[in-house]
Design a protein that fits this description.
The chain has about 210 residues and is mainly beta. Helix content is about 10%, strand content about 35%. Strand 10 and strand 11 form a beta hairpin. The two termini are about 10 Å apart.
Length: about 210
Amino acid sequence: MTTITLAARMGGAYRMKAGQTVRIENPYGTQAVDAWALADDGAETGDGTVQYSSMEHTRSVNSSIYVDKGLAVMGMDRRPLFTMVEDTTPGHHDTQLCPCNGPLYADLDQPAEHRSCAGNFHDALSQIGLAMPFTPASLNLFMRVAVGPEGEVLRQLPEARPGDHVTLRADRDIVLVLSACPQDVTPINGPDCIPREIVLQFSEAA
């Protein structure tokens, strides 16, 4: 196993072979983690960009607004990129909210240099020589978002316990991008609004 600590507020991009797993541990139980995957097997979308994780196709294929144990995250081709094979949390990982971004923090009266998950996505890709012309929607691990009776989006406090984790299995060769969410204005990372690190354990390549 290879263990990596992803610092609070930061992002990382990791190449994974089909069959390889990563355990994402939440040491404090409160940290939201935005996740994306890009196909690393040459597959492209209709516009020539690489296949990327699609929350709309994930919801459609799974018939669920959440990702839970046993469910896969789909590419734009509706083929699995990775599957959640283990989950010690209460589950119901969010697919609805956008990754935090510059305009969102501007709305919250934060300075332009405030770190964001969208920024972390692009920074992480640049570190391995990749780029995307836009920011795809993210899978929001450990984030609690419900839907009210009138369709309203309800942002809730995290329910994971310290040390809870999820394990993701790559279903094809992928680049997995993770962001330890920098949100420190609203309580999406817990009532104290303090972003914290996460711990990653990668299995050996299959």
